[in-house]
Design brief:
Largest sheet of chain A: none
Largest sheet of chain B: 2 strands, parallel
Structural class of chain B: mainly alpha
Number of strands of chain B: 2
Distance between the termini of chain A: 58 Å
Number of helices of chain A: 6
Shape of chain B: elongated
CATH topology of one domain in chain A: Cytochrome Bc1 Complex, Chain D, domain 2
Shape of chain A: globular
Largest interface: A-B, 34 and 39 residues
CATH class of one domain in chain A: Mainly Alpha
Order of helices and strands of chain B: HHEHHHE
Number of strands of chain A: 0
CATH superfamily of one domain in chain A: Cytochrome c-like domain
CATH topology of one domain in chain B: Cytochrome Bc1 Complex, Chain D, domain 2
Radius of gyration of chain B: 22 Å
Distance between the termini of chain B: 67 Å
Strand content of chain B: under 5%
CATH class of one domain in chain B: Mainly Alpha
Structural class of chain A: mainly alpha
CATH superfamily of one domain in chain B: Cytochrome c-like domain
Order of helices and strands of chain A: HHHHHH
Oligomer: heterodimer
Strand order of the largest sheet of chain B: 1-2
Strand content of chain A: under 5%
Chain lengths: 109, 121
């Protein structure tokens, strides 16, 4: 195999692997990145004000979708847009894994 | 029967019919909550293509946040077609009752550190 196709194959494999990496965050790493989140959403994911949503135990893919919507402007909130502007996909995965791992919200029927 | 009296009778009858139809079609808060449960009450339920993610858990969520979210959907500020359609039909009282069903107690004063508490947008 020549060098060029190898590069292409490697790039294609990496492109396939990236979403999988992004999907599984590290909750412990997320905890270390979460100081700014905790200021409003609480150290245990239960918010300091009823105006802010509790995050503890929420589905991580819902939280990630919300963060992306703040980033791309689909969802508008001045505080949240500023907070998430510089988060990478890796950061989003770690942070959402952290809050999802906490005890709090439940599917209520 | 005098024409005016006949007209009055007809109007009263029509009014009574309309009132009884309204009673039969009365939407209760249980009906409203049943509408929520169709998605939010099913473990593992997700949104539809093209953007697929879990519908959020509502049990234990803050009441004020639930009401604010419903109002944002109703006004069009928050954009999700299903929730817009549902919130459009909710009164402020409906929203409070739905929030009371799902929500946690509004006050949470014990754990909040004074420095970071109470910052509102």
């Amino acid at each position: 195999m020549s060098a060029v196709p190898k590069t292409i194959v490697a790039s294609a494999l990496l492109a396939l692997a990236l979403p999988a990496l992004a999907a599984s965050g590290d909750a412990e790493v997320g905890r270390k990145k979460s100081a700014a989140c905790q200021a409003c959403h609480g150290p245990n994911g239960m918010s300091v004000s009823a105006e802010f949503p509790n995050l503890a135990g929420q589905h991580p893919d819902y939280l990630a979708a919300a963060v992306r919507h703040y980033k791309n402007g689909k969802r508008k909130n001045a505080i949240m847009q500023a907070q998430v502007a510089n988060l990478s996909e890796r950061d989003i995965a770690d942070l959402t894994a952290y809050f999802a791992s906490q005890q709090g919200l439940a599917v209520k029927y | 029967m005098h024409p005016i009296r006949a007209l009055a009778c007809a109007c009263l009858a029509a009014g009574a019919l309309a009132a009884s139809a309204a009673d039969n079609n009365k939407i209760t808060i249980q009906n409203r909550i049943a509408q929520c449960q169709g998605c939010h009450g099913i473990p593992g339920w997700k949104t539809a293509f093209p953007e697929v993610y879990s519908v959020p858990k509502l049990g234990g969520q803050n009441r004020a946040y639930i009401i604010a979210a419903l109002k944002a959907y109703k006004s069009g500020e928050r954009d999700f077609a299903t929730m817009r359609a549902i919130a459009a039909d909710l009164s402020d009282k409906d929203m409070e009752e739905v929030a009371a069903y799902y929500g946690a107690a509004p006050a949470r004063t014990a754990a909040a550190p004074a420095a970071s508490a109470g910052e509102k947008k």
